[in-house]
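Hi L.,

As promised, S-adenosyl-L-methionine-dependent methyltransferase:
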Amino acid sequence: MAYELRDWDIVSGVGITALGVAAARAVETSRDDALVRDPYAAEFVRAAESPVPMPTGAGDVAHDEHCWSLMSVFLGLRSRFLDEYLLDSCAEPAGASGTRQIVLLAAGLDSRTFRLPWPEDAVVYEVDQPRVLEFKDDVLARSGAEPGCTRRAVPVDLRDDWAAALRGSGFDPGAPTSWLAEGLMPYLPADAAERLLTTVHELSAPGSTIAVEYLPGAGSALADSSVASRLTGLGIDLASLLSDADYDPSARLAERGWAVDEVTAEQLAERYGRSFDDDLAELAGNGRYLTARKR
Ligand SMILES: C[S@@+](CC[C@H](N)C(=O)[O-])C[C@H]1O[C@@H](n2cnc3c(N)ncnc32)[C@H](O)[C@@H]1O
């Protein structure tokens, strides 16, 4: 299993999934009705020189490449919803003026630290594998990108003692935190997912929030060769990367006393006026986004 690798970069192991979602954001960004505008997404794809060709905009996607259109809608919905979650958590009165400490777990090539209008005194921690963050930093530096807040990269494997690395970067467990786990849970074996949420719980002051994306049943759906074959155009062997663990983060957070809400990708499609017009709609529409607050 690729997930057992200890060390991956942007075109290997789970790292290539970060490039795949950047490509999907680049396709979405190029649409007139884009739900997310990520000015760095295409730059990441070009700079990676991936052996697997990936689009840098809708113009690179052939009409019959339904998987990239599907990914563009999926990533547009997910990015918009999670952008709103993060900005709302900074605006709400968690402290007197909302959360100022944000942790992006498995940040990958997510450029939110640079593209969202953060409060100036916000501190955003980006946690991911060292080689993924090195590539990201290099591309962003060459683009002249500047964050509108304080950014702290935390290069560490989330299966190791990432809490120590986070604290070592200045993270304050006494202050409320807005956590994000986007595009991470589906790759984690159940024991790793459980350890991750336990650590988040331990590091969270009351009033902290989290948003988690998860895809119930995706691992087993991709074991079906007809579903897997519809996704071969992505050039990423998702079936070998996705975990088949049906771990339920909503239930696990609720058991720990967090107030949990949940929405499906299908509901987000309705909310934002988009649809999954493909026979993979059932798989994509079943994606879940939980948001939770520690009491
Ligand atoms: C699908 S990408 C999502 C990236 C980002 N959240 C986004 O949506 O653009 C998955 C990311 O998870 C990271 N990841 C997965 N397992 C990890 C681990 N054990 N330690 C650190 N990063 C990990 C990968 O390196 C990759 O960047």
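The chain has 13 helices and seven strands.

Thanks again for sending the construct details.

K.
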